[in-house]
C-alpha cells in the first residue's frame, strides 16, 4: 500500500512540474555561421550609375512597363527556400533604391517560422558534426552567389546606387536542433557609390574576421523629381479628362510649352546628352532650372497621351525621329497623332513661345507636299522640312502618310488651360505673344493660310533680302530657329528675368527660392526655383522625455535647413499607467489628449499625448460677402477646433478701378490679393474635393507578417496633414508617406502593437479625411517584439508564449491527482 501511495505522489509531482517544463520551450542557442563576401562579375551591371538611375526614374513614369533587360527567366533557383531568400532580399533592395532604408539589409526569423531550414540528411551531415562542418555546407545551401547574380540581372535599375567594385559582405546566424539546421538571421551590407550617398553612414556591419562596411541611405532626390513629375502629368490629364480629344491634345501642347524651356546648352555644348530619358521628367518636375530639348517635348506629349482615355479609341499618339529645319537639317524628335481618320504632325518644341510654329502652324499640321522621306510645311513664309530616319520609317510605316491639310476642329475649343494650381493659366503663354492670339490660333489656324499674318508681313518687301534673313533660321536646330521669328513679336515690354533668392523659403512639407525681381507673376510655389519636398534627417532629441514631461525631437531638412519638431510622449511610471483619451481637447492654438486614469501626474497640456499646433483643413465659405456686408469663412482642425475669418464687403467698383497685386495663397484653396491704391483685399476660395481611399480599403494584415500595410488617399501629398489610427494621431516614426496621390504605409513596428480585430485609419489632408477600416488577423503565435509604451493604442503584451490551455489542463490533472491521494489516505486511516 505504501508503495502505491509513493507512486501516486510521484505522479502528482511530475504532473505539477510538466506544465512549466513544457511551457519554457527555450529556443536553441544561435550559432555564428560565418560571413559572406561577394563582388559582382563584370558585365552584370552597366557602367554608368547615372544612366541606370535615369532608367530607374523613367520606370517611375511608366511603372506598367517596368521590366528587366537582363532577366534570365523564371524558376532558376532550385527550391522554395532559395526562392524565399531571393524574394526577401529583392523586397529590401527596392526599399534601398527608393531611399526608404539603408544599404544594410537585415533578415530575421523566429526559428520555428524560418523558411531556411535543412535536415542533416539534406546537408549530408549528422547531428554529431561540428559547427564548422555545418557552416561550410550551409554556405553552399544558401547559394548566395547565384541569388546575388540573379538580383543584379532582374533589378539592374534598382541597383543604380551599388558600388560594384566594393560589392557586399554579410553574416549568418543559425540554430541546430536534433534534426535540422535553421537560419535565424542574415545581415547583408551592400556598398553604396559615393555620388549616391546621402550624408554620413547610418549603420556599419563588422564581421568576426575584421571585415567591415559602412552603410548609407541613398540620395533619391532624382527619384522624388520623377514622382513629382508623374503626379504633375496625372494632374494635367485629370484636369482635361472631360474635354474632347482635340481639346485634350491642344491643352497638352499648351501645358508643355508653359512648363518647359528649351535647353540650348544640351545641343550646343553637350550633344552626347541627346536621347537621355531624364528629359521627359525635366518637363514636369516643376524645377525651372531643369530644361529639355526636342526629345523632352515630344516624350512629354506622348506621355500625356499615354495616360489619357480618348473618346475615340482610334485617337493615338506616336513619336517620330529624324531631322528638320529650314536651310539646314538637324536631328529632331516630334509626334504624329491619328485623329478622326487622319494623321497629323505635332511639333511641340517648335510650338513654344518664340519658335517658328508658335501660332499653331506645326500643331496637328497636314501636308500634301511629300519629299519621299518626309514633308514640307509653309510656316510664316518659310519652307520647313521634316525627314524621318530609317527606324521611324520601319516602325511607323502605317502612319507616316499625313492628311493633305491641317486639322480643323468641329467646334470652338474650351479654354485650353484648366489649371488647378495657377489662377490664370491662359495668360501664361501670352506675355510676349501679343501679336498672335496664343492658343486659339490652333482653331483659327483652320484656314491654314499664313497670309492672315500677311499684313504684318507687309515688310515682306524686306523679304527680298530674305536671303540675308536666311541666316536667321540658321538657328534651324529645331528650337534654335527661335531667332527666326524674333522679328514677329515686337516686344513692347521686356520679358521678365527671374532673380532667385539664395535664401530658402518653405512650408510644412516643401521648400523653394523666391524670385526677388519686380513684376514676377509666379504665385504657385511649385513653379519656383528649387521647389521640392523637405528631406528630413534622422532627428535629434533636443529634450528627453521623463515620467512627468514630454520630450522633443527636432528634425532638420538636409537641403534647406528648415526644422520641425515632434513630441516624445511622457514615459510610463510604475505608479501610474496613462490612459490617453481619444477625445481631443484644445485652445485657440493647440490641441492634445487628456489622461483619463486617476491621479495622473501630468498637468501641463504641452506634455500630454498628441500636443501640437492646429493643422487646419481647407477653407469653406459660410456666408458670401455682398456689396455692403462682410461675409465669413471657416476652416477646421482635425481636433474639431474651428477658425473663422471675415470676407470683406465688395466696394463700389464704379468709384474706383482697383490696382490688384498678384494672387497670394496660404493654403492650396485660399487666395488673396490687395489693391495697392485703396488697400481693399479680394479673397477667393477654390472648391476642394473631399479625399477618399482609392487603394487599401478593407485590407487585412496577419500578425507576425514581415511587411507593412499601405493605404492610398486621393488627396495630393502636398496637402497631407496627419494619420489617425483608432482616434489617435500617429507619430511619423510609425509610417512612411509617398506620392501617388498620398500613399501611407504603416510600419511593422506599428502593426505589431495592434490586437487582432478591426481598426480604423484616417489619412487627414487639407480637403478632409479619407477613412477606412482594416483587419488584423491573429497569427500562429503571439508577437514577442518590445512594447512601444509611448503609444496609447498599443495593448501590453506579456511576452508569455506558453499554451494557456495546456497550463490549465495540467493544473486540473494535478489537483485531481492530489485529491485522489487525499481520499486514499483518509480511507487507509479508517481501516
In brief:
Helix content is 22%, strand content 26%.
What is the subunit arrangement here? Answer: single chain
Strand content: 25-35%
Tell me, what's the shape? Answer: globular
**Radius of gyration in whole Å, from Cα?**
35 Å
Helical proportion, percent range: 10-25%
- Biggest sheet character: 6 strands, antiparallel
The counted number of beta strands is 37
In round numbers, the mean pLDDT is: 74
Q: Note the total helix count.
A: 16
Structural class: alpha+beta
N- and C-termini, Cα separation:
12 Å
Strand order of the largest sheet: 11-10-9-8-13-12
* Stretches with pLDDT under 50, minimum 5 residues: 17-24, 66-74, 266-278, 416-492, 781-807
Overview of the molecule:
The structure is a single chain. The chain is α+β, with helices and mostly antiparallel strands and 831 residues long. Helix content is 22%, strand content 26%. The chain has 16 helices and 37 strands. The chain has a six-stranded antiparallel sheet with strand order 11-10-9-8-13-12. Strands 1, 2, 3, 4 and 5 form a five-stranded antiparallel sheet that branches. A hairpin with a 3-residue loop joins strand 14 and strand 15. Helix 1 runs antiparallel to helix 16 and helix 3 crosses helix 6. The longest helix is centred in the C-terminal third of the chain and has 27 residues. The two termini are 12 Å apart. About 16% of the residues have low confidence.
Amino acid at each position: 500500500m505504501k508503495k502505491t501511495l509513493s507512486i501516486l505522489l510521484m505522479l502528482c509531482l511530475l504532473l505539477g512540474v510538466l506544465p512549466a517544463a513544457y511551457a519554457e520551450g527555450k529556443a536553441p542557442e544561435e550559432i555564428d555561421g560565418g560571413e559572406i563576401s561577394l563582388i559582382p562579375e563584370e558585365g552584370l551591371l552597366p557602367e554608368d550609375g547615372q544612366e541606370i538611375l535615369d532608367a530607374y526614374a523613367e520606370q517611375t513614369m511608366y511603372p506598367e512597363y517596368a521590366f528587366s533587360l537582363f532577366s534570365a527567366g523564371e524558376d532558376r533557383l532550385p527550391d522554395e527556400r532559395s526562392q524565399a531568400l531571393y524574394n526577401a532580399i529583392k523586397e529590401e533592395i527596392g526599399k534601398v533604391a527608393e531611399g526608404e532604408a539603408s544599404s544594410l539589409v537585415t533578415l530575421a526569423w523566429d526559428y520555428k517560422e524560418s523558411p531556411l531550414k535543412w535536415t542533416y540528411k539534406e546537408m549530408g551531415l549528422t547531428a554529431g558534426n561540428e559547427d564548422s562542418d555545418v557552416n561550410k555546407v550551409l554556405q553552399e545551401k544558401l547559394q548566395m552567389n547565384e541569388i546575388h547574380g540573379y538580383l543584379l540581372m532582374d533589378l539592374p535599375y534598382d541597383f543604380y546606387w551599388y558600388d560594384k567594385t566594393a560589392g557586399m559582405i554579410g553574416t549568418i546566424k543559425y540554430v541546430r536542433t536534433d534534426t535540422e539546421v535553421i537560419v535565424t538571421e542574415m545581415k547583408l551590407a551592400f556598398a553604396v557609390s559615393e555620388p549616391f550617398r546621402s550624408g554620413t553612414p547610418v549603420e556599419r556591419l563588422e564581421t568576426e574576421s575584421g571585415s567591415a562596411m559602412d552603410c548609407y541611405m541613398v540620395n533619391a532626390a532624382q527619384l522624388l523629381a520623377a514622382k513629382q513629375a508623374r503626379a504633375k502629368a496625372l494632374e494635367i490629364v485629370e484636369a482635361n479628362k472631360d474635354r474632347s480629344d482635340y481639346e485634350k491634345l491642344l491643352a497638352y501642347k499648351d501645358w508643355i510649352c508653359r512648363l518647359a524651356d528649351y535647353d540650348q546648352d544640351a545641343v550646343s555644348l553637350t550633344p552626347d546628352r541627346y536621347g537621355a530619358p531624364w528629359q521627359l521628367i525635366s518637363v514636369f518636375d516643376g524645377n525651372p532650372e531643369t530644361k529639355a530639348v526636342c526629345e523632352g517635348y515630344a516624350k512629354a506629349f506622348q506621355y500625356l497621351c499615354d495616360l489619357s482615355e480618348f473618346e475615340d479609341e482610334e485617337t493615338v499618339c506616336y513619336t517620330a525621329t529624324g531631322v528638320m529645319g529650314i536651310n539646314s537639317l538637324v536631328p529632331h524628335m516630334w509626334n504624329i497623332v491619328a485623329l478622326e481618320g487622319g494623321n497629323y504632325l505635332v511639333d511641340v518644341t517648335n510650338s513654344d513661345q518664340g519658335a517658328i510654329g508658335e501660332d499653331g502652324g506645326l500643331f496637328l499640321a497636314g501636308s500634301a507636299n511629300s519629299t519621299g522621306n518626309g514633308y514640307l510645311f509653309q510656316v510664316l513664309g518659310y519652307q520647313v522640312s521634316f525627314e524621318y530616319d530609317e527606324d521611324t520609317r520601319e516602325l511607323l510605316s502605317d502612319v507616316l502618310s499625313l492628311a493633305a491639310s491641317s486639322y480643323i476642329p468641329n467646334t470652338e475649343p474650351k479654354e485650353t488651360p484648366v489649371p488647378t494650381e495657377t489662377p490664370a493659366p491662359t495668360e501664361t503663354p501670352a506675355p510676349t505673344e501679343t501679336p498672335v492670339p496664343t492658343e486659339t490660333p490652333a482653331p483659327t489656324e483652320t484656314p491654314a493660310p499664313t497670309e492672315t499674318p500677311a499684313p504684318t508681313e507687309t515688310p515682306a518687301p524686306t523679304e527680298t533680302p530674305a536671303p540675308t534673313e536666311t541666316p536667321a533660321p540658321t538657328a534651324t536646330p529645331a528650337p534654335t530657329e527661335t531667332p527666326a521669328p524674333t522679328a514677329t513679336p515686337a516686344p513692347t515690354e521686356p520679358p521678365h528675368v527671374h532673380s532667385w533668392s539664395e535664401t530658402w523659403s518653405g512650408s510644412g512639407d516643401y521648400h523653394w527660392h523666391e524670385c526677388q525681381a519686380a513684376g514676377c507673376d509666379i504665385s504657385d510655389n511649385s513653379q519656383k526655383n528649387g521647389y521640392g519636398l523637405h528631406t528630413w534627417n534622422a532627428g535629434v532629441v533636443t529634450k528627453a522625455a521623463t515620467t512627468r514631461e514630454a520630450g522633443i525631437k527636432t528634425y532638420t531638412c538636409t537641403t534647406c535647413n528648415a526644422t520641425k519638431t515632434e513630441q516624445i510622449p511622457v514615459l510610463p511610471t510604475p505608479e501610474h499607467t496613462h490612459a490617453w483619451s481619444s477625445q481631443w481637447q484644445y485652445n485657440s492654438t493647440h490641441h492634445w489628449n487628456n489622461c483619463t486614469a486617476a491621479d495622473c501626474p501630468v498637468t501641463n497640456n504641452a506634455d500630454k499625448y498628441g500636443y501640437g499646433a492646429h493643422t487646419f483643413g481647407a477653407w469653406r465659405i459660410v456666408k458670401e460677402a455682398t456689396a455692403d456686408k462682410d461675409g465669413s469663412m471657416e476652416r477646421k482642425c482635425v481636433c474639431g477646433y474651428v477658425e473663422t475669418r471675415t470676407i470683406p464687403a465688395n466696394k463700389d467698383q464704379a468709384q474706383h478701378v482697383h490696382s490688384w497685386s498678384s494672387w497670394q495663397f496660404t493654403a492650396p484653396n485660399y487666395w488673396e490679393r490687395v489693391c495697392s491704391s485703396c488697400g481693399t483685399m479680394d479673397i477667393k476660395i477654390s472648391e476642394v474635393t473631399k479625399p477618399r481611399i482609392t487603394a487599401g480599403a478593407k485590407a487585412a494584415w496577419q500578425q507576425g507578417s514581415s511587411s507593412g500595410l499601405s493605404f492610398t488617399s486621393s488627396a495630393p501629398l502636398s496637402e497631407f496633414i496627419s494619420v489617425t489610427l483608432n482616434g489617435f494621431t500617429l507619430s511619423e516614426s510609425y509610417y512612411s508617406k509617398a506620392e501617388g496621390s498620398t500613399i501611407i504605409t504603416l510600419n511593422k513596428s506599428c502593426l505589431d502593437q495592434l490586437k487582432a480585430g478591426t481598426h480604423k485609419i484616417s489619412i487627414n489632408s487639407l480637403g478632409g479625411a479619407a477613412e477606412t477600416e482594416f483587419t488584423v488577423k491573429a497569427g500562429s503565435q503571439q508577437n514577442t517584439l518590445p512594447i512601444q509604451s509611448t503609444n496609447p493604442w498599443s495593448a501590453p503584451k506579456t511576452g508569455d508564449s506558453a499554451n494557456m490551455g495546456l497550463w490549465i489542463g495540467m493544473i486540473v490533472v494535478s489537483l485531481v491527482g492530489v485529491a485522489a491521494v487525499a481520499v486514499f489516505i483518509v480511507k487507509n486511516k479508517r481501516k
